[in-house]
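pasting for ref. prot 1 ->
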Amino acid sequence: MFEKCPGAANIQTPTLEIKRCPECGKEVEIFSTDLKVTCNICGFTVYNDVESCVQWCKYAEKCIGKDFYQSLKNKDKRNE
């Protein structure tokens, strides 16, 4: 991985975000590296809106690692 890519900061150093479950409205904790989490109250799957340089940067795979890169790219294909 590269050392200081500003575009991948939230991926290399995960941040915690609080979202609302679209099904029941309760708070759900999701890290910037999570693609999805399950609501502890109703079981609904809450997806993370991972929008970053990973979609366009030619160094993304080297920057964040092959496995995480592939999981994000597969997510993009499912959303098409």
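and prot 2 ->
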Amino acid sequence: MEVVYFTITAALLYFAADRLLDAMERRAGRRFEQRSLIFFALLLGMAIVSFAVLRRLLDS
């Protein structure tokens, strides 16, 4: 069942990172040149935090 939780979390994080990047670009008024790198950094940061929290919740 853990695989399902992590998969759903990963899908939600993907869409959240996309929305966050889009909001950042709208605020800046332009598309970022290194868009894929920024997206990766956002997704990685959110994944590390949320997966650690999820792991802690599932272990208890």
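Residues 2-59 form one domain.
The chain has one domain: 2-59.
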